[in-house]
Amino acid sequence: MKRNISVFILLILLASSFKYRSMTRESALPVITAGAGFDSRPSPKAVTVSSWDAAVADLHKANVEMAKGNPAMFKSLWSRQDDVTIFEGAENVDSKGWKAVEASLSNTVATPPKDVTYTYEKVASQESATQGFLIQKEHYRFADGRKADLHVTVLFRKENNVWKIAHRQADSMTTDGKSDKTSK
């Protein structure tokens, strides 16, 4: 419960900071790329600015790959800083720091499924010059009949003009009557 309240307060503070910031756009924008592409290596001479929409599109592609058991693309979207966090799963597993997050992402899919269908519903998103958040519902349907429906919150920040994930939190939409381990 404490963690859920903390995440909620963080989201309120984040949303408030976006409300009072004014975004300025220059008339001559630099080249806009698809962000931290999976295998793309930007030219050192080129000035690139990652667009928010491209970063979200990359996230959705990475979600499909992750569900298929390929975490490499999803990992490429993450910041490598020590303050990144991930809260996932029914056990309320939380990891802090890139090494812990990377280990969590590597262990997510033990046996990759043959086929998966991924859909999402955007609930809200906002971006500023340096921060952004995305709240969405993710739906995974596997060939063997399994399904996963998640409430997901992803916090992004810009690092070297590329949107990187700083935090991800996911909870199952299904209620099984069990209480949250963190509640008293």
Summary of the model, kept short:
By secondary structure, the chain is α/β, with parallel strands linked by helices.
Model description:
With 184 residues, the protein is of the alpha/beta class. The chain has a domain of 124 residues: Nuclear Transport Factor 2, Chain: A, CATH 3.10.450.50. It contains 4 helices and 8 strands; from the N terminus they run αββααββαββββ. The strands form 2 sheets. A 6-stranded mixed beta sheet has the order 4-3-8-7-6-5. A two-stranded parallel ribbon has the order 1-2. A hairpin with a 2-residue loop joins β7 and β8. The radius of gyration is 17 Å and the shape is globular. The relative contact order is 0.18.
Question: Which helices and strands appear, and what pairs or packs with what?
Answer:
Blueprint: H1 2-19, E1 31-33, E2 48-50, H2 52-67, H3 72-76, E3 85-88, E4 93-96, H4 98-106, E5 116-127, E6 131-142, E7 147-159, E8 162-172
Parallel strand pairs: 1-2, 3-8
Antiparallel strand pairs: 3-4, 5-6, 6-7, 7-8
Main attributes?
8 strands, 184 residues, two-stranded parallel sheet, single chain, alpha/beta, 4 helices, Nuclear Transport Factor 2, Chain: A, globular, six-stranded mixed sheet
